[in-house]
Amino acid sequence: MKVVFDAELWIWDARRADSWTFVSLPVEESEEIHDLTGGSRRGFGSVRVRVTIGVSSWKTSIFPDKGSGRYALPIKRAVRRAEGLDAGDVASVTVELVDF
């Protein structure tokens, strides 16, 4: 499954001092991922993905956000720097499920 979407980068309030930055996947696609993966039993309910933003590609995990019903995707600092992104910016994101 591959999901392509635009999303605003946001900082996780609980780790604001560490600048943990994320984007949220769309609700409908998040529900589909949950159904496909059977609510993964990996750590924190994570699902392995391959991500592309601009010219940057990497493997990581997405995590369920119980409050919003969406998956959250961490955007590492190296990618934010390479793509010139900060919290509040909107990025075009491609997420592809792997290892499920």
Automatic annotation (TrEMBL):
Protein name: DUF1905 domain-containing protein
One Pfam family, short name: DUF1905
Domain of life: Bacteria
Annotated source species: Nonomuraea soli
Xref: SUPFAM superfamilies: AF2212/PG0164-like
